[in-house]
Write a structure and sequence with these properties.
The structure is a homodimer of 175-residue chains.
Chain A lengths: L3 E10 L4 E8 L5 E8 L3 E6 L5 E9 L4 E5 L2 E3 L6 H13 L1 E13 L8 E12 L11 E6 H10 L5 H14 L1
Parallel strand pairs in A: 4-9
Antiparallel strand pairs in A: 1-2, 2-3, 4-7, 5-6, 5-10, 8-9
Chain lengths: 175, 175
């Protein structure tokens, strides 16, 4: 089933993504071209308070031209461990420090054209401080019950795939 | 909160994706660069049998270098309606015809760098025929109970974001 790389050409190198076009051989004898967006990977972290509330963030997402409601998330810095990144992004985007971080798995967001992999965490034992955003980040936070966040996934108010996945996994694991 | 385009440069035009780098103005007065992968959009469709079984597909995903288990899915052809695409992809990848298609929402897979939008459906009133794959597609199907598929999401055997999202939404809606 595996596809083998016959030829690889990098066609764009950006700040965040790199794009390559590879010629691959298939197990059925055909060859095909694959357009691949290389991404450094990311984390998403759901802060879950003792009373069942979660904190989500609202931010404008330029590629889709809309404000989306998402779990706190961010790209891995070079050499950064996912756990460190989760605590850092949570602190920066929401001002929340977490005493406990549970790894709940990872998702590939677009495996048809990208290697983006997002590590998923639930954060607990939370304490609230100030936001500490990058200069090009404008992020609002909202606190609501986990069950209300799930209703927003069903009703289409939450449409970010990693957020639907992480909220659902948290619900399935914690009930 | 909105970001306005000051300048847009297309840096790669492929068969499937187009990549542009835009300079944008933020509401806080800063400007920033945004790398954007334009994608034609896609559908994902969960075939759900009367007895609670679902059909998933296994295929090698070159960008991540692994065989993944996913809901049947595929890109929109130019001018194609999502519902038509859902029925077509379901038929091609699994050989299943559906008498009923329920729209359950959409997800953005990677809104930080791409506009990819996936329309999600549950297909019912199913009848089984032969697969009809593209020459560069090699796809195996597996039939299993919806609850078993959800367990695979929790256990990390299913890692595709749209698949975790659609299975979870089907479970939350149907119980």
């Amino acid at each position: 089933m595996e596809e083998k790389t016959l030829e690889s050409n990098t066609v764009f190198t950006g700040k965040i993504i790199t794009v390559k076009v590879d010629r691959v051989s298939l197990t059925n004898g055909w060859t095909s071209l694959r357009e691949v967006v290389l991404h450094p990977g990311a984390v998403a972290v759901l802060p879950l308070f003792d009373n069942g509330d979660v904190v989500l963030v609202k931010q404008f997402r330029y590629p889709v031209g809309k404000v989306l409601i998402e779990v706190p998330a961010g790209k891995l810095d070079p050499g950064e461990k996912p756990e460190e990144c989760a605590l850092r992004e949570l602190r920066e985007e929401t001002g929340i420090d977490a005493g406990k971080l549970e790894y709940v798995g990872f998702v590939y967001t677009s495996p048809g054209f990208s290697n983006e992999k997002i590590y998923l965490y639930i954060a607990e034992e939370l304490s609230q401080h100030e936001q500490d955003l990058d200069v090009d980040e404008i992020v609002e936070t909202i606190r609501l019950p986990l069950r209300e966040a799930l209703r927003m996934c069903i009703d289409g108010e939450i449409t970010d795939a990693k957020t639907v996945a992480l909220l659902s996994l948290a619900f399935l694991k914690r009930g």
